[in-house]
Amino acid sequence: MLESNKCYMLDGDIQIFVWMGSITSITERKTSISAAEGFLRAQEKPVNTQLAILKEGSETGIFRSYFDDWPLTVEPKLYEEGRGKVAAMFKQTGYDVDELPDEDEKPHIVCNGTLKVWRVNNGKLSPVPVVDQRKFYSGDCYTVQYIYSANGREERLFYIWLGNKSSPEDRADAISLTNVIVSSNKAEPVLARIVENKEPSQFFMIFQTLIIYKGGMGSGYKSFIAEKGLDDETYDDKKTALFRIQGTNRDNMQAVQVDQPAWQPILIREGSEPDVFWDALGGKTEYPKEREIKRSIEDPHLFVCIFSEGVASQSSDLKVKEIFSYTQDELTTEDVLILDCYTEIYVWVGHNSVVKSKQHALSIGLAFLEKDILGECLSTDTSTYVVIEGHEPPFFTRFFDWDASKANMLGNSFERKLAILKGQTQKLEAPLRNSPTIYSKETTPNGLRRPSPTPNGLRRPSPTPNGSIRLIPASNGLTRRQSLDSYTITSTSPTFSGLDFNPANNRRFSSPPVPIMIPSASSPDVHSADNTHVSASSTAEVEILPSKDSGPKKELINYPYDRVKVNSKDPVHDIDITKREAYLSDEEFLEKFAMSKQVFYQLPRWKQNKLKMSLFLF
């Protein structure tokens, strides 16, 4: 009776059914639903009459009961895997949607950890008793510490929860006081700022059951309402209160206190509104007819922050650049990056970046929300997480094809890149303070090891396979620190010729600076790899003399850019892959880098690396 290429309407008196065949078009389905709504208005049906939309194969028992010959069992069909979703789609979001909302979100961290809650009160954080940790007040601010296990270690997550009716003073105190706790924690916990009604689902999963009362218990709320002349709405268990229960299952339930109704509602069907209804709203205008659903975070956007004058604290100071088709390798230690997931954002802070506090990182996240780069109408109340390099939680790493060995490496970008090229992706360990040597015998190439000091303060020469070493006395006009600041270790080895081991620029080591080894044929006056002139009359030098079997140092051969870049289709072989730019001619170097080689090598090493990466030379 019911054909698959047609739509039908069934009047069940208290319920109207619209049945849609499996091969009907979207236009036919829209027309059928509109016709059913017009039928309801024309027949002046009661406002509580339901309109049920059914797809072929997803008929309810009530609908089947109107047919005498409906089979008791129906064989499932392969194309009916998502049956029932069309009706839900139309009822939830109207008739023009991209996709259905996902089912219950799975937690990305262990939800059976340890909770500790503080309330902001009188400029201090007051611990909340365990029995009251799941009871919040909308007029207060709270700090939540959650300890859980992940990646074989103990992780800490701090939330700053800001109530909708909380005072500005309490909000500022909550952020600053929480930052003090987080900064004193050596485990580099994740810090998140969230606002009432904008909480991420993960927050509710951690609490499992959360009650939010009206009013507040803190002194900040009491002072705020007294100053504004507002009534105290704080919950009183001796009075009647109305709560809205929300959540998808027993593991993320919330009870939110709402206003009690003081009037009798009048039911009005959409499309049949009287004039008095529109007059109360200021007149009839166009309005959205689709239900707002939870936005997907399956396609987040990654941005790198570009700071004016090194630091950004105001929205006008922050500039960002989007990174398309990003990977974990984009998280460079010198940068601050923002991962925009629509419903929440993550501020990732590298160890060698200009941002040194989580409170500063939160202000950068707020500046990003204010700019609304993608025009998403982001609210400044959007949940903001601060993640420190090397301490990325699972709910952050899920957005990447994550390699833990890369996350555990130390050093700047150049040192990490070189370690990966050499296959040394294991964690690099910094030496202990007061360690007598910087490099171990196993990790330091011959010729770069620190020789032991002689009684006159100079280093004993160490023989190398490639040459001999000569000591040149230092002038008394400069201190040892001053005389070493401009030195660079160089080697005839292609692997290490591009490495900068300047102790002044290497924050990983606390031992005294290493001596300098500068290759030279005969003269003590040479130029280092950074074009820094070194004079024997003013500094102490350790000069490597060429051995008998080593020929004179050759000038580098120039190659076209297309042959020396990393992704070249016709690459040049037997070149120093850490110094690809050095093989460019002066003219092509100036064209690509917009600066001369001399200017380029005076830049900080990390900046050189970033420029080379942008040109596929690193």
TrEMBL record:
SUPFAM superfamilies for the chain: Actin depolymerizing proteins, VHP, Villin headpiece domain
Biased composition (Polar residues): 434-446, 521-540
InterPro entries recorded: ADF-H/Gelsolin-like_dom_sf, Gelsolin-like_dom, Villin/Gelsolin, Villin_headpiece, Villin_headpiece_dom_sf
Coiled-coil segments on the chain, per record: none
Keyword Iron: no
Start and end residues of each stretch annotated as Disordered: 431-477, 521-551
Domain of life, source organism: Eukaryota
One example of a Gene Ontology biological process annotation: actin filament organization
Sample GO molecular function, one term: actin filament binding
Keywords tagged on the record: Actin capping
Pfam families recorded: Gelsolin, VHP
HP domain ranges (all copies): 553-618
Protein name: HP domain-containing protein
Organism this protein belongs to: Ambrosia artemisiifolia
Phylogenetic placement of the source organism: Eukaryota, Viridiplantae, Streptophyta, Embryophyta, Tracheophyta
